[in-house]
Design a protein that fits this description.
globular, 2 domains, Endo/exonu/phosph_ase_sf, six-stranded mixed β-sheet, 335 residues, five-stranded mixed β-sheet, alpha+beta, Deoxyribonuclease I, Chain A, phosphatidylinositol-4,5-bisphosphate 5-phosphatase activity, 11 strands, 30% strand
Length: 335
């Protein structure tokens, strides 16, 4: 089975959707295409309007999953009608926006066996100094996933997004020289992401043979120098799977210049051969974490509806209560 994953921080650029359409057109050979976007901040654009924007981009694909958490947006495309469940959780307003994750649990059949993939799109706290906070957010994300899904039955987790790990402990000018030399291996020795790899060794990544994906001057291929940011591999795609899989291509789409981030794309193939049948997140499962999920969902819901609540007062407040009550009811039914 062929799976493509794209992660892209679009920096609130509406023109990104025309780029997105061309990207999807180039991925029509994929059986499943997962796209995770960050910083999709458009004033007065409702979720339904955003969904229609996405729908205009997908061609012959079916949208089998769509989720939005403030500026974090993800969707799953397939040419088949697969089963999909979605879940999201906020990690709070930090620095330059809302941080958190969205996820999609997909079931499918391959060689008469039932398989599944959990796709996760995340946006973690920014800036080089916040490594400890990023690692804490990763842990919060995994605990939430372990509580929201039956983790023992998940075959594959694809974790992607603007994880905001920075190149640290090396002079910025030295990094520029290494980029010119295409000595990416040396840059990666100073990547904060190495802390993640040590803590979560089951998550694998393709070989990085491309320039850092951040921070560019939008509309150009030039790195931003005025803000003294060290070019970094903020945007990552990782896989944790029980099944044999191959990373066929892992790259930055360097010809796309809309945002201050370059899109990062992974193409991979799965084979129905189990290599490791142990639980994917066995070391971090926290059953008591479920109480935080309730609080987070309540906050997300009322924040998204506060504008209408303020205008329509009692009518919307009543409808919001019923909607939230139904969401809680469905949550208990699934758990």
């Amino acid at each position: 089975m062929r799976v493509s994953i794209l992660t892209w921080n679009i920096n609130s650029k509406k023109s990104a959707f025309s780029d997105l359409k061309s990207i999807i057109e180039n991925e029509m050979n994929a059986d499943i295409l997962f796209i995770g976007l960050q910083e999709v901040y458009f004033t007065f654009m409702s979720t339904s309007d955003l969904y229609n924007r996405v729908k205009d981009c997908v061609g012959s694909y079916n949208i089998i999953g769509f989720e939005r958490l403030f500026g974090i947006v993800s969707f799953v495309l397939s040419k088949n009608n697969l089963q999909s469940e979605s879940f999201r959780m906020g990690l709070g307003f930090l620095n330059n926006g809302y941080k958190g994750f969205t996820s999609h649990y997909i079931q499918f059949s391959d060689t008469n066996e039932k398989n599944n993939i959990l796709f996760v799109n995340t946006h973690l706290i920014a800036h080089e100094k916040n490594l400890d906070s990023r690692m804490k957010q990763v842990s919060e994300c995994f605990k939430a996933i372990s509580s929201a899904y039956n983790i023992k039955e998940i075959d594959t987790i694809i974790l992607s997004g603007d994880m905001n790990f920075r190149v640290s402990g090396i002079d910025r000018e030295k990094v520029y020289d290494l980029i010119i030399e295409k000595n990416y291996e040396e840059i990666l020795k100073n990547d904060q992401f190495n802390n993640f790899s040590k803590k979560y060794p089951r998550f694998k990544e393709g070989n990085i043979n491309f320039q850092p994906s951040y921070k560019y001057i939008a509309g150009t291929d030039d790195f931003e120098v005025k803000k003294y940011r060290v070019p970094s591999y903020c945007d990552r795609i990782l896989c944790n799977s029980k099944y044999k899989h191959n990373f066929t291509e892992y790259k930055s789409l360097e010809n796309i210049r809309t945002s201050d981030h370059k899109p990062v794309l992974l193409r991979m193939e799965f084979e129905p051969i189990i290599l490791d049948n142990s639980e994917l997140l066995s070391d971090i499962t926290d059953k008591n974490y479920i109480y935080k999920l309730y609080a987070s969902e309540m906050f997300n819901f009322f924040h998204e509806n506060i504008f209408l609540i303020g205008i329509m007062a009692g009518i919307v407040a009543s409808g919001s209560y019923l909607h939230f009550k139904n969401k809680i009811k469905r949550f208990f039914e699934k758990n």
